[in-house]
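pinned: reference chain
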Amino acid sequence: MLEIQNLEVSYGAIKAIQGISLKVHEKKIVTLIGANGAGKTTILKTISGIVKSKSGKISFCNEEITKTPPHQIVKKGIAQSPEGRLIFANLTVLENLKMGAYLVSNKKIIKETEDYIFAIFPRLKERISQQAGTLSGGEQQMLAIGRALMSQPKLLLLDEPSLGIAPILVKTIFEKIVEVNKELGVTVLLVEQNARLALKISDYGYVLETGKIILENESKALLEDKEVQKAYLGI
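pinned: its structure tokens
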């Protein structure tokens, strides 16, 4: 579904991404793990068209999207729940969700998607008219994921969904990520510092270090890899 070939991204003289290649197959959950500053968020932003690559190629559903503007990338079926959530604090929960459906014209589909999001995240339904800025961190994360789902994505990019959230809510959110993948058939590319949790719910994983992929394998194999355990799992 998604293929990245020899991607290079620079911020001025700093090489953030150094010739990486990766694949995300349809209906799978793929995770990128690595330390802070490894380049994980930069990869997601480049896929979304927010950051421009220096060289390399990004293809989605057999179509090159390397130089495609962000709004067109959303139209093609890629949505992102960004690091830090970036919800619209002064808008209500419902208004935030409506913003996610900006490019969807079918009102019936919009309503069905809203209902699905309220079913998997009942807390959001309870706070439907509440200003999003007054929600807890976990609730805001639910809203950010819900807003991304409103655009009817084929591929969902999730950037650090566990960041700054109470452990009990992290468990809920990760369960819902699996649910969305299995029930809706949405493919997921997950960036997550909680490597253990990310590898437990994903099918395949890439380990990123200073802008380079140093290891890739099925997630189960990475969980059992001694180097991964030592560097990222605290074993």
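why pinned: The radius of gyration is 17 Å. The domain at 2-82+152-232 is CATH 3.40.50.300 (Rossmann fold).
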